[in-house]
């Protein structure tokens, strides 16, 4: 019969000092899907327009799928600027195809946490001709700055990050 050996405990390493505290990994297990995270956690954080646009484009249910994904959610100010560029008052006036493709362009395949971002990395999206480029120097994604107060929001099927601009279609 085999015996178990007890190993002396290892020294604890000092906690890492993170240059950007919001890049620090979270160690809790999520209980909500990304759809629920978007539905419940975006209202008071300045991301209500993203949720409304997803519902209008009938894409909120996509965030219930089991395949892991990363969402880069533009904040309300980003949507306001985008609407001004398009000359419309809101998502309900945006061409249906443009709205749907723009929202899909904010979804990356796989889980991508900020602490794992690699400079120049291209993330695949559900759109065949679109990728998302990571810039760790500027702390941006496709040229849109990451929101330091709204990143690494965990769901059972992925992670959500806030961004401060709507991505241009390639």
TrEMBL record:
SUPFAM superfamilies membership: FAS1 domain (SSF82153)
SMART domains cross-referenced by the UniProt entry: FAS1 (SM00554)
Pfam families: Fasciclin
Residue ranges constituting the FAS1 domain according to the UniProt record: 34-167
Annotated protein name in UniProt: FAS1 domain-containing protein
Organism, as annotated: Echinicola strongylocentroti
Lineage: Bacteria, Pseudomonadati, Bacteroidota, Cytophagia, Cytophagales
